[in-house]
Specification:
Blueprint lengths: L1 H23 E8 L4 E8 L4 E5 L3 E9 L5 E10 L8 H10 L7 E11 L4 E10 L2 E14 L2 E11 L9 E2 L4 E17 L1
Antiparallel strand pairs: 1-4, 1-11, 2-3, 2-11, 4-5, 5-6, 6-7, 7-8, 8-9, 9-11, 10-11
Length: 192
């Protein structure tokens, strides 16, 4: 009799836990909203420079836990190399040539791992596809989460030569771009 009671109790407990978990943590897809901000910052022998775009596509696949930051299982962001603009046509042409933008028009980031603390700050590790080369990169990130909205800001630095990109030059090599660049972004994702 006691073993039957334990069996029934365990079955009811398991059913309740599965139902509670299904209500508590739901898998959701968040889509990148219009007007994200992506900036590439660098230096040259003449002056510092930057290129930026507010055109990109992307998504997050999350387990959204009530009252907690979502657990991001998958994320992907893509943008077109030629959407990056400096405001100077000559510089843009040199940058697109260095990025092999005709042959590799898409820049893509795929998340591999995200670890954040209780404040929403942490690190995102993923693969960056740039100019026909892929490398692991680590971003410092900050998440803000409200029901149905995930805001992500971040920053990383790397060398162009890590991606087999020869830093561009201008005026017959008298102006040289530095090898080190920084990427900064500010994005908002919403559930479908």
């Amino acid at each position: 009799m006691m073993s039957r009671f334990i069996y029934v109790f365990c079955a009811l407990l398991a059913a309740w836990l599965m139902q509670s978990t299904a209500l508590w943590a739901q898998e959701k897809r968040f889509v990148l909203q219009a007007r994200p901000q992506f900036k590439v910052l660098g230096t040259s022998t003449l002056h510092d420079w930057h290129m930026e775009t507010s055109v990109a596509e992307g998504f997050l696949e999350c387990l959204a836990n009530e009252g907690e930051y979502p657990t991001i299982k998958e994320a992907r962001v893509t943008l077109k190399a030629k959407d990056l603009k400096s405001g100077k046509k000559g510089m843009d042409r040199n940058a697109y040539k260095a990025l092999y933008a005709e042959k590799y028009p898409i820049i893509e980031f795929r998340l591999q791992n995200l670890s954040i603390d209780e404040t929403g700050r942490g690190k995102a590790l993923g693969t960056l596809f740039l100019a026909g080369t892929s490398r692991e990169v680590s971003f410092t990130v900050e998440l803000q989460y409200t029901e149905g909205i995930v805001e992500v800001t971040g920053r990383t630095a790397f060398r162009l030569t890590d991606f087999n990109i020869e830093p561009p030059t201008a005026l017959m090599g008298t102006i040289k771009t530095g090898d080190d660049v920084t990427i900064e972004f500010n994005t908002t994702f919403k559930t479908l």
